[in-house]
Amino acid sequence: MKVIREKFHNQLVTMPRLFPINCYLIKEQKFMTLIDCSKKGESRKIIDVIQSEGCPLKHIILTHAHSDHIGDVDKIKKVFPKAEIILSEKENQDLNHKERKLSPLPVQVDRLVKEGDYVGSLLVKETPGHTRGSISLIDLRTHFAFVGDLIQTKGGNAIAGDRRFIFPFPAMATQDKTAAIQSFEKISKDQYARYYCGHGSYLENNSEKIQRMIARGNAKIN
């Protein structure tokens, strides 16, 4: 696992060259929040990074319920039993209705969130598309957006549902391509400094790149 350390967060990257899967450790003054949990088999590495920071883990937020994002969340919860497991209300509803494209959670959800809720310094934004209940988290200190699989940069910048030949997997798992484009249009209007995704490096705020992504996405569904 590759660890990219920044002032307010660490980016933890599983298989950075072949099949990068990102999760993020958000560092607050007195606690930390983990966004996503990578895939199964990575929990020990994630736990080691958390423990190396010497600060309690207070929250585990899942941007959506796919196997490469929930990973071994139960094993992480076992080591940090006071950490809240957080999921969106809509994603939880779909899990309860056994939506076939979602991966069942191996642990109980402690808190459900919706648009406008806060988790520490993170603001919750509902960004459906990749899944109906997908959320993004905005760090209000840095103006960074952590968007799960709403976009990808591995294989080329693309909105969820826009299949890239080199890395087609997020597109293959996307539930609603039109909703994903609408979500990215909505969130990009706020012009966040960076967009951190589930697969690939971050996307700098660049209106030309963003408009190309939106145009390409729309062309694929029209």
Automatic annotation (TrEMBL):
Pfam families: Lactamase_B. InterPro entries: Metallo-B-lactamas, RibonucZ/Hydroxyglut_hydro, Sec-metab_biosynth-thioest. Residues 20-199 form the Metallo-beta-lactamase domain. PANTHER family: ENDORIBONUCLEASE LACTB2. This is Metallo-beta-lactamase domain-containing protein.
